Amino acid sequence: MTARVRVEFAWPAHNAVRVGDETYFCLERDGVVHVLASRCPHRGGPLHLGRVEGGRLRCPWHGNAFRLDRLCERGVPAVRTGDRITAYVPAAPEPEDLPIPVRQMVLAQEEPVDVGV
Amino acid sequence: MTSAPVRSGIPETGEWTSRFATAPPYRPVSTPTVGRTPYRRPLDAERIAALRGDEPLTEERTGSDEALLAHRLLMNIYESDTLFLPEEGMAARQQDFEAFYDPATRLAADIAKPAVERYVFSFLDRSVQVTGAWDLESVEAHVTAAIDEAVHAESPVLRAIDESADPVRATETMVAQMALDGLTEATAMSQNLGGAYGPEQSELFKIFVDEFGYGVFDAKHSTLFAELCRSIGMTPTAHHYWFFYLPTWMTSNNYFYYVTRNRLGFFRYVGAMTLLEATFAPWFAAMSRRLKAVYGDGVDTRYCDEHAHIDQHHGRMAVRDLLLPIARKHGPAAMRELVRGIEDTKVLGRLADADLVAQMTWHPVAVAGGDRPPTGAPVRPGQDFDTRVAAADERLTVLSGQVELHHSPTGDPLTVPAGSSVVVPRGRLFGVRADRDSVVATTSSAG
Ligand code: FES
Ligand SMILES: [Fe+2]
Ligand SMILES: [Fe+2]
């Protein structure tokens, strides 16, 4: 079982979380915000910089496209109420690497959202 | 019974809603409290017919007049499928009994129900979003954090009682809301005792063994609640204070019927019940202290004291023996629903607290003089009584006669004589009554 760490952040002021070398990013589908692992299953490319095309997320590295419904199904356990998101991200190998909420300038989006500051 | 199609409220089923709401048990009464019978629960069929069912309530409108009407309707839909017998026996109530459980009315209730539920509860699908692949560790972490947060939060309701200029009225306004399930035997929460679902069913039963007083009537939680009511001079008949239930408190109570009458809601129900059971103990301990501070030694706090004690166990039992085993056995889809129930409860609790605090801290005052609107509506002695929620800040000006403004289940109403007015803030629940022919103008109170 994955060891997990709880992280809370205000969305959309923050739209991603870093834990050690990993990034988890928010993706809004039909008004619902999912928290997804950015590491591409192919060779680890940054899915959070990918493009959403017809229900799939295309990785910017080698162009593989992954079905969004499946990515969301396997997403990070998360709860959103209002602008608050609580997520349980996999812990980093170094326990002192705690999750840090961040704001990505460029982010894969199914629906345009006002990221605002 | 209406047979013409009604252009009403809850689409698809408007006619059925109307058939139900106009049935004898739901006819109006002229008094601010309802007689000592489980079978009278007044509904205003006309206002219900005006609901825009195609526009479900948003979270912002859970305390609105529309929510009030829809939740009264829904509570009656649910509870007409629940057994109530009159305390004094059936002899004088046979007709009411038959009317309350009339199969044609029940059929209308069952047909109307899904659309009414959608109208009042679909906001939760937007307010609470649970996503991702949950596992046992994340569920356990989440339920632990939710409980921790809840038991350490200060209750705004109890603080409002502490700070109230009229603590007795404030407390009784709260007790009247608690009576929603306190006097109906936690019926809404006990819908899943039947069925066949393994060891967890037995664990749930253990919790209810306490709730039901181990088969000893005097030890039942509802008996203890009735004794609390009696000791402070309140009437311990279910729904006696019908007109003073706040929409958000009916929301919380109806929620438990909503997630249990439809068995698809089972996991959500377990999440919701677990969070409540796990947070009741400190809340009831604090309430017991408040009750003694407000009423002195005469108040019977056993209802609170019992929960302050037993819910320490129920909380642990609900998490360890019910929620986590269910999560383990039924997997990620169930886990998501368990978490959703926890989150629903947090949202509903926050809305109910805010609504109740606003009602408790409203102390209406009649002011003489001021503008005199040219026309008003008659208020006659003995006419149907009802309460409603102000859609905006409203000024009621009494043009002639004299009216009583009812704004709490107990305590004197405010007398407003001719030539005076009173402001009802947006969102507040009130009713108007007169003992002589009167005329009241309702205007926006802006400025
Ligand atoms: S790393 Fe994503 S497609 Fe190759
Ligand atoms: Fe109880
Ligand atoms: Fe309990």
TrEMBL record, chain B:
Which residues span the membrane? Answer: none
The parts of the chain that form a coiled coil are none
* Region of interest (Disordered), residue spans: 1-39
Q: Which Gene3D superfamilies has this protein been placed in?
A: Heme oxygenase-like (1.20.910.10), Jelly Rolls (2.60.120.10)
Q: Which domain of life is it from?
A: Bacteria
| SMART domains the record matches | Haem_oxygenase_2
Q: Name one Pfam family in it.
A: Haem_oxygenas_2
Q: Which protein, by its recorded name, is this? A: Iron-containing redox enzyme family protein
Q: Which organism is it from?
A: uncultured Mycobacteriales bacterium
